[in-house]
Amino acid sequence: MAFVMLAEVLIFVPSIARFRADYLLLRLEKAQIASLALLAADDATVSADLEKELLKNAEVFNVVLRRDDVRQLVLSSTIPQPISETFDLRQAGPWELIKGAMLVLADPQNRVIRVIGNPVQDAGLLIEITMETGPLRHAMVEYGVRILFLSALISAVTAFLLFLAVQRLLVAPIRRVVRHMSAYAEAPEDARRVITPSAGVVELRVAEEALASMQTQLTGALRQKERLAQLGGAVAKISHDLRNILTTAQLFADRLEISADPAVARAAPKLVGSISRAVSLCESTLAFGKAEELPPQLKRLPLRVLADEVLEGEGLAGERQEVGGLVTALVDVPAGLVIRADGEQLYRVLSNLVRNARQAIEATGQAGTIEISGGEDEADWWIKVGDTGPGLPPKAKEHLFSAFQGGARKGGTGLGLAIAAELVRGHGGRLDLARSDAEGSEFVLRLPKRVGNADGDQA
Domain Histidine kinase spans what residues (predicted)? Predict the structure, then answer.
């Protein structure tokens, strides 16, 4: 309605100015007719009553007609007050007409003005009259009221039609979207409640399509979360039973350490260590199933020794060992480098990275190299695990550290890297993919030297 009224104002101002100009031209025309009637009479002398009647009919006080360069006062009467202003309509432009109309409307007093114009039908050079502004203003106000009423009617009709259009084109589709959102919120796992885009307005149609896409993805995610929850419950039960079995095996493995056979005595510590790690893994799995990953127990440990244990556990014992003529393992860690970390958790992280690298190389059927290197700077300890394998596929890079989404090996679950990244974050560090191309892949693990916001000891 505001915009319609603004449009009506832009129409009203020129209209009221044109109405005033037509009103004045009509007075000039009536005055010209009265003066020509008087000049056409045989006797130029007329009675005062006739002259008064002619002036009253023309609604003017005086009429001056110039013909043949002679200015002649044709009709005259007493002017009740001095002339306040003169308006020349012969060369008046739009702005002059608008200004004159606004001055008349703004001045409620009845004043006498002089109006000059061109006679019609070329009946002279000019015609000049004097008249009051009161009747002019009254007529302009009546005309303005009619315009205002018409404008209000047009605004009301336009607003009503706009209301109907908005209700049909915008409000109804928005209400439909809100109903779908409410229904979907009650049962987001029900795919039947996903909205079907049907809006005719382009913007609403795009919004409905975006909402449908989001609902579809959320429904799939909820189903996946439900399956993961069920899987987690099953894994927790299996880990519980497996922990009991491994505990029994650990008791028997402890007896092997006192065996008289030297080979058995040498293998016993490795067997005990492997079983201990398996028990620890089961306990961690149970804690993970409860969303309670145990915080790392930070201790100082030599990184070179840990790297050798990881390679030994993966069948890559020693600084340089070939397996089946395919995989070569290298360790490039300073012998005196000591870091602060949870040994068991860091072993799991490095073991996962080494195992993934070995499997990637073996899958190609060609020889390759795995290298564990380490070092430190002022803020962090860093560990790199690189290989000369085929690199990661693009799909695996998109969700590399997401459970059940970042698996690079066919048949893999993608849990290994997700758990490894979580364990590193528990140390306050981060696990990143430094590179992955046709020449191989390299992961970088960084562990901070400072613990939290406290001033931790520097290694």
Answer: 237-451
First to last CA, the chain: 75
- Out of 122, 152, 182, a domain closes at 152
The angle subtended at Cα 10 by Cα 7 and Cα 15, nearest 5°, is 125
Instruction: Give the pLDDT mean for 285-303.
Output: 72
Residue 428 pLDDT > 70: yes
Task: Write the burial class of residue 203 (CB in 10 Å: 0-12 exposed, 13-18 middle, 19+ buried).
Answer: exposed
The mean pLDDT of the chain is 79
Q: What is the pLDDT of residue 317?
A: 64
Please write the tens of the pLDDT for every residue from 362-421. Answer: 888 888 899 999 999 999 999 999 999 888 887 777 778 776 555 555 544 456 788 888
How many domains would you assign to the chain?
A: 3
Cα(152)–Cα(146) distance, rounded to whole angstroms? 10
Residue 93's pLDDT is 82
Q: Are residues 362 and 257 in the same domain?
A: no
Q: Are residues 303 and 285 in the same domain?
A: no
Q: Where are the beta strands (DSSP E) in 342-422?
A: 368-376, 380-387
User: Both 133 and 211 in a single domain?
Assistant: no
pTM of the predicted protein model: 0.43
Same domain for 133 and 23?
yes
Q: Is position 455 within any domain?
A: no
Class of residue 62 by CB neighbours under 10 A (exposed 0-12, middle 13-18, buried 19+): buried
Residues 401 and 325 placed together within one structural domain of the fold:
yes
Which of the given ranges, 24-38, 246-260, 416-430, has the highest pLDDT on average?
416-430
Boundaries of domain holding 320:
298-448
3-state secondary structure of 303: helix
User: Is the pLDDT at 122 greater than 80, yes or no?
Assistant: no
Run of H or E residues at 65: strand 62-67
Domain boundary among 123, 152, 181: 152
**Amino acid, res. 76:** S
Beta-sheet strand order (sheet of 112-117):
70-75, 62-67, 126-132, 112-117, 83-88
Within a domain: residue 171?
no
Q: With H, G, I as helix, E, B as strand and everything else as coil, classify residue 107.
A: coil
